[in-house]
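Notebook p. 47: complex prediction with inosinic acid.
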Amino acid sequence: MDDLIRVHDKSFTVFIAAPTIQRRVQEMGAELAREFAGQHPLFVVVLKGAYIFAADLLRACPIEQEVTFVQFSSYVGTRSSGRVHRMLELRENIDERPVIIIEDIVDTGRTLSLFKEDVLARNPGSVHVVTLLHKPDAQQFNLVPDYVGFSIPNRFVVGYGLDYEEDGRHLPGIYQLKDDD
Ligand code: IMP
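Predicted complex, structure tokens below:
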């Protein structure tokens, strides 16, 4: 894994190495399997950023389950635009079902606080939020994730599903924007 990489016009340094991510994701999958065995949860993956995390997490969670996808957009470059657009909606009937939302990163919490309200309004059995990354210092909305892979400082990151202007999602590790960039 290179320590310093370029994505578009910016430099990033290695922050969480791929084997460390893999170990943590295996632990999280096992924890979800223990807690939701026999409940047939509906996993709702927030595209695009969570697709790689979800693929690894769900294979580490060997219980009866269903998976579906939603998509919002709020980021422009390295900053949140402040608006959330719904691009792909939740179509499943979630009445009295356990719903587990899978997110790549909770930053301000805006996207998920809005989506969680939508889900709660549809009478689910329960709603939990699993996120690989959490930036507690960036939080502006009342959204406390139930399962967190890593709490990280308030700096922009790419890799393992997260992008900078649609590049960098394929990187197996997570990289942080370099200080002077
Ligand atoms: P929030 O609504 O401010 O919590 O932002 C959530 C969304 O913004 C995430 O699902 C990501 O797609 C994106 N995002 C937030 N922080 C980062 C980052 O550091 N790198 C890449 N994308 C990010």
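Notes: The beta strands are 4-7, 10-16, 42-47, 66-76, 79-88, 98-106, 126-134, 147-151, 157-158, 174-177. The first strand starts at residue 4 and ends at 7.
Next step: compare against the earlier run before touching the bench.
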